Amino acid sequence: MTTSGQDAYTTIRERIITGVYPMGERLGEVELATDLGVSRTPVREALRRLSADGLVEVSANRGARVSLWTTDDLDQIYELRSMLEGRAASRAAGRITETELQELDSLCDEMESAVESGISESHNLDILSDGNRSFHAMIMAISGNAHLHRLTDSLFQVPLSIHTYRHYSSVDPRRSSTGRTRPKVKSQSTTGSLGRSERAA
User: Fold this and answer.
1) DSSP alpha helices (H): ranges in the chain?
2) For 144-196, how does the pLDDT look when each residue is reduced to its tens digit (9 = 90+)?
3) Angstrom distance (rounded) from CA 43 to CA 36
4) Across the strands, what pairs with 59?
5) Domain locations in the chain?
6) In the β-sheet with 26-27, what is the strand arrangement from edge to edge?
7) Strand 63-66 to strand 26-27: parallel, antiparallel, or no bridges (unpaired)?
8) Residue 63: enclosing H or E segment and its boundaries?
9) Residues 78, 201: contact at Cβ < 8 Å?
10) CATH 1.20.120.530 fits 71-200, yes or no
11) Sign of the alpha-carbon torsion through 45, 46, 48, 49
């Protein structure tokens, strides 16, 4: 992929994940090229890669649009997420430092405060979305398993986006944030009983 194609990919991907381009929105090559200040070629490259990521659907007749994710899609991905992040939490528990644990606690406190203040507020959604991604990225990094990190990063792009919080806000927003990962990491880092965090996922 060319440098301009990579830049276009990064920008469009971030806009999809943060909800700037909502699910189902058409992504016209001409409009994107004009907006990003590039030719249509790097935009086309970016859309092909985003399609491979599952973030964009490309049709010969209808062009490209942001992928639509159903409730069943999200539930199935959360099931996989629980399994993989349970493993990551298990590994992280044996490697985490006190400073890192305090940083995770701080992220959790910020997200819980946002939930209690009202998840329908745009500002609180941003805090929850950004904090959630930072929290899970940190767990993956601490786990020390680069392959697991790459797998979860590609698999959970959309469910970790702001779309998910809107979907679950009327049910249980904590499911979309840290879930039970914080107590699992904290408990296992204290007791050293790593296997339980994996089984509890």
Assistant:
1) 3-17, 29-36, 40-53, 71-93, 98-117, 122-143, 146-155, 162-168, 181-191, 195-200
2) 988 887 777 766 665 555 455 554 444 444 444 454 455 555 555 544 433 33
3) 9
4) 63
5) 3-66, 71-200
6) 26-27, 63-66, 56-59
7) antiparallel
8) strand 63-66
9) no
10) yes
11) positive
